[in-house]
Amino acid sequence: AQSVTQLGSHVSVSEGALVLLRCNYSSSVPPYLFWYVQYPNQGLQLLLKYTTGATLVKGINGFEAEFKKSETSFHLTKPSAHMSDAAEYFCAVGGLNQAGTALIFGKGTTLSVSS
Amino acid sequence: ETGVTQTPRHLVMGMTNKKSLKCEQHLGHNAMYWYKQSAKKPLELMFVYSLEERVENNSVPSRFSPECPNSSHLFLHLHTLQPEDSALYLCASSQDNAMNTEAFFGQGTRLTVV
To answer: With an 8 Å Cβ cutoff, is A40 touching chain B?
Structure first.
């Protein structure tokens, strides 16, 4: 079975600071990994995904993530935080559970950005 | 309209009521999903439909009943719910339900059971 663990339920940064949101995965097969963002009262929006190929993946809004197989990690970064980045971020892995094949999500990390 | 649309956006229902949540996708996708999002918990996958066929999931209480009449529409029928069923219910769709395929989400229905 596949699963993801997001380390830290809440991360606070200052505007202009580096953003680092941590995600570790567990998978018995090569993983397919995703990061989504959710703004208040909205659904989830895809930031980026890793399937195969280049391990550094660039996404929207200046975010990127690096797949590290040796560390079973897929951390999300952004060099310089903006106020508009404040939201909840979810890491997910393509997986199979009792409901079928679909994205399996972590608990989420709330990002706060202060001026 | 484009993307995935859910109606209603907000719903308050009593424990003896029967209501339905509706989801419609305009992306030509072949797979649709219901997720439950509760505070402090991971998104919980409830149901998966692929090519209008559902994988049985005995972990979801029978008071939740999904229906997928065609590849563009998905319903979640609700009856005799409990207060702990209050949550944000998210619908999603994807091109197929392969593990490497991203899902597109609607804005959700905020359900409150009183």
So the answer is: no
